[in-house]
Specification:
The protein contains 15 helices and no strands. By secondary structure, it is an all-alpha fold.
């Protein structure tokens, strides 16, 4: 049977690159599993003033417009959806088309509609830089160094090792994230018949795209089950969990901003982190499940 890389495993080299980006050197081991809490005290916080200015501007734009009660209720729903994933994974590939994966995203869509309506994503795109390495690394240092990332994802149902894997994957994919551009980029590039109204803000595209990928799995898994293996489904389940986790981070940022319980630095960093997780995970899902290579797909006759 074809061997498929487990997305939850990271190599020693990937750990080294991640720790270097966080400014962690010396004593911290890079062999085997590690958690963000183990390295938290060694993370060098940099770029805080830039993150603070961004967060302050977003907070000013959205003052009084976020429905914290709605977000709190739907965030509990997202956590519940994450909790259902082991059951979906254990059920294996569906024998008939259902709605199980679409049901997972219902709470996140409710949050999404509210955030779009109040201009949350438009404000984020206006004030935040594109996905460039310095901003991604500064955001990661902020969230890891303060423990904010671990706390938010642990509350959402992620184990410590899974949180470390997500953070490592995002930080190490900075060049790939940079391919996702803000709306203004397309105008500057002179795209013919360009209308900014036709393109959603960057962070909206990231998070909405993740939800659409999950919604499409009910049909795709049923229609293409002959191509897929249980290992590929396992990776896909992890990708879905990561996408929901990314949306949880964005929701948490908006909720805590409304409640006044998040700093400007953390607000900016959390929006960046959640959107980046959504981007990387949906692209992983496309590779893991939607576009399997000949080497990875199930042999003729099924898995």
């Amino acid at each position: 049977m074809p061997q498929v890389h487990d997305r939850r495993q990271i190599s020693d080299e990937e750990r080294r690159r991640f720790l270097k980006a966080l400014g962690v050197v010396g004593a911290t081991t890079v062999a085997g599993d590690f958690t963000l809490d183990q390295i938290r005290g060694e993370v060098a916080l940099t770029g805080g003033s830039e993150l603070a200015a961004i967060g302050e501007a977003i907070r000013s734009d959205l003052s009084g417009s976020v429905d914290a009660s709605l977000l709190a209720s739907e965030m509990a729903g997202i956590t519940a959806s994450i909790g259902r994933l082991p059951e979906l994974g254990a059920a294996g590939l569906p024998a008939e088309q259902g709605t199980a994966y679409q049901e997972l995203t219902e709470p996140a869509w409710n949050v999404h509609e509210h955030l779009v309506e109040i201009g949350f994503f438009a404000s984020a795109e206006e004030h935040m830089p594109p996905f460039i390495a310095d901003h991604i690394e500064a955001s990661a240092r902020q969230l890891v160094g303060t423990g904010t990332l671990s706390a938010a994802l642990a509350e959402g149902g992620f184990a410590s090792e899974e949180i470390a894997t997500l953070a490592t994957t995002v930080v190490n994919n900075g060049e790939h994230l940079a391919k996702w551009k803000p709306t203004a980029f397309y105008a500057q590039e002179g795209v013919e018949e360009f209308d900014p109204a036709d393109i959603a803000p960057l962070h909206q595209r990231a998070t909405e795209g993740a939800l659409l990928w999950i919604d499409g799995l009910d049909h795709w898994l049923w229609q293409n089950q002959v191509l897929l293996t249980e290992e590929m489904l396992s990776n896909g389940i992890w990708d879905v969990k990561a996408m929901l986790g990314g949306y949880q981070l964005v929701s948490q940022a908006a909720h805590d901003m409304a409640e006044g319980t998040i700093s400007d630095e953390e607000l900016s960093a959390m929006i960046t982190a959640g959107s980046a997780v959504a981007i990387i995970s949906q692209e992983h899902l496309a590779f893991d499940v939607a576009r399997p290579t000949d080497e990875a797909r199930a042999p003729r006759g099924g898995a």
